[in-house]
Amino acid sequence: MLKRANEFYVEGQEISIDLTDKGLGQLTRKEEHLKNLKFGLAKAEKLPFDENSQDLIVSSFLIDRLDDPRKGLEEMFRVLKPTGKCIVVSPLNFKKKEHWELYYPASQLSDVLKDIGFEILDWQEDIVVEEPLDGRENFVGWRCLGFVVGK
């Protein structure tokens, strides 16, 4: 996915995705070349960026999958510029019992974010993200929390 995203957004290549097995047909798109965008793969708990170096952090369906959610959030705080924003959408479907105890209900996660030093700019509970399964309009609905935070 990272390779394809880099080809599409950074290199400006046309991409084709064959979704006929899902009943959706062939999708072909070309996007404008974005010179200031970079993709990489790293552990959320150990980001390969300098302190105060990132304008924007976007995290989707990740927080509840981390071995140490707090450490991941602390890393996001560390690399975020003082004027930067962090946007998170997550279903809060934790893998570990202790994470349920520490971060659920969502108000407990809010307290953790504030304890780390984040300022909560927007907070939306009960966002439903629909994940399409096929071309027959079957989907999985994920009840998610979404928030925007800054330093």
Strand and helix layout:
Layout: H1 2-10, E1 14-19, E2 25-30, E3 54-60, H2 69-79, E4 80-90, H3 97-103, H4 106-116, E5 119-132, E6 139-150
Parallel strand pairs: 3-4
Antiparallel strand pairs: 1-2, 4-6, 5-6
Please give a structural write-up.
It is a single chain. It contains four helices and six strands; from the N terminus they run αβββαβααββ. The protein has 151 residues and is an alpha+beta fold. The chain folds into two domains: 1-41, no CATH class; 47-150, Rossmann fold (3-Layer(aba) Sandwich), CATH 3.40.50. The strands form two sheets. It has a four-stranded mixed β-sheet with strand order 3-4-6-5. Strands 1-2 form a two-stranded antiparallel sheet. Strand 1 and strand 2 (25-30) form a beta hairpin. The longest helix has 11 residues, at 69-79. The radius of gyration is 18 Å and the shape is globular. The model has no long low-confidence stretch (mean pLDDT 91).
Any idea how many domains? Answer: 2
Topology order in helix (H) and strand (E) letters? HEEEHEHHEE
The whole-angstrom Rg is 18 Å
The helical percent reads: 25-40%
Observed structural traits:
single chain, 151 residues, alpha+beta, Rossmann fold, 2 domains, two-stranded antiparallel sheet, 4 helices, 6 strands
Concise structural overview:
This protein has 151 residues and is an alpha+beta fold. The protein is built from four helices and six strands; from the N terminus they run αβββαβααββ.
